[in-house]
């Protein structure tokens, strides 16, 4: 870990009056450790491999020197910044637009998930800076709307996330499209072996900078965890949000998209505003959600891990891990969304019995303390004596105790406690003073005596059943008796009235006489 130099102002470097004024307009006066270590080598044109905690100002560390060196009079892509997610690309583009506005530099945001037409128009308008995701950059290059013959600076932001998502092959292709004389800068919170190998391949005598040893978090974040049952996890989150201050803002992380959708459906019924964000949302929806979150219209934002790399909102006061992260690196990136720019923050992890083993592994790998925390009670209601959570075993034991008490009081006492409409027929008969009908056994557990055998034996019973069947068949024959009264022979059928037709239609007179003639013969 490198000790940052004692630099108290950005005036220490020759960034230009326009860039210094833009930094002052952002409300930033004192450089962070990563800025103090990286801005100097970046201005000298050296390649940089920088490792720093999440939320320490890496965007300004590479953005300020890059903006100060680019020429706004050239209508070609001079700088390229690659980000793993659309949200992070949007954040970086916003910072670079503020830094280059007074210098007349144009920034084009090139990300997937939205139509290309506006992005192509921005490129045709002569953008000198391109900020985007690797997939869309390669797509536009394949369609010959984007090229890098004069690119001077290439930056990989959050490079370890690109490795995890699977963008490293695309990054290698993009680096191969740029000139060999470029300046390359990599900024990341961690450097796995594969990423470090890429960094060494794509840089020339880089300045390796580190403000953290291994994986670390900023000291302005208080880290706690709460042990809860899975059934009480949602209520624990609701208690935390409802018991917070009005100005507090929560960022809640889940593992999967389905978990985000299920949780947001439960929280939408609560009195505080909340939104959801994950990769399944289209780009306009993601921008609307992030805009509402930045302006303070949202009390709680429910997001996935991928979104954690693109959320740079300074007023986030609480980060809640609704699901335990996979490893200490993911945990670091999640909680790095709070306590940014020197502000205080709180990180709380909800640990269920199923995730306790993973959580203990994270605590062992972390080189800092994470203390337990009691679950807060809901406002206006005293917390349960057991801390607000009750296990399934305890619930089943309570049910067994109530069942034993009911049997001890007797069956009548148990029935008398119920409303009349919920009682059975035997209970109503007992209330009216009648003897209740017995079932298979009485209340003392005795079996009902068997039905006495029918007198006369089994054959007589069968014969009686057949006789009942014959009587019922005779009763159901009125139609047959009426049909038997009709003439049965062909000769007798001549007594039918003239013009009679079996189908109910009247015959013609000539046809009727002809039939009568043949019948007489």
Features of this protein?
alpha/beta; 521 residues; 41% helix; seven-stranded parallel beta sheet
Topology of helices and strands:
Elements: H1 17-25, H2 33-43, E1 48-51, H3 58-69, E2 79-82, H4 86-100, E3 107-110, H5 117-124, E4 129-132, H6 134-142, E5 153-157, H7 159-165, H8 168-177, E6 183-188, H9 193-201, E7 207-210, E8 221-227, H10 233-242, E9 250-254, H11 257-267, E10 274-277, H12 283-294, E11 300-304, H13 305-308, E12 318-321, H14 328-335, E13 345-351, H15 356-365, E14 371-372, H16 392-409, H17 411-416, H18 425-431, H19 457-475, H20 478-484, H21 509-520
Parallel strand pairs: 1-6, 1-7, 2-4, 2-5, 3-4, 5-6, 8-13, 8-14, 9-11, 9-12, 10-11, 12-13
Describe the 3D structure.
- The chain is an alpha/beta fold and 521 residues long.
- The chain has helices at 17-25, 33-43, 58-69, 86-100, 117-124, 134-142, 159-165, 168-177, 193-201, 233-242, 257-267, 283-294, 305-308, 328-335, 356-365, 392-409, 411-416, 425-431, 457-475, 478-484, 509-520; strands spanning 48-51, 79-82, 107-110, 129-132, 153-157, 183-188, 207-210, 221-227, 250-254, 274-277, 300-304, 318-321, 345-351, 371-372.
- The longest helix is centred in the last third of the chain and has 19 residues, at 457-475.
- It is elongated, with a radius of gyration of 42 Å.
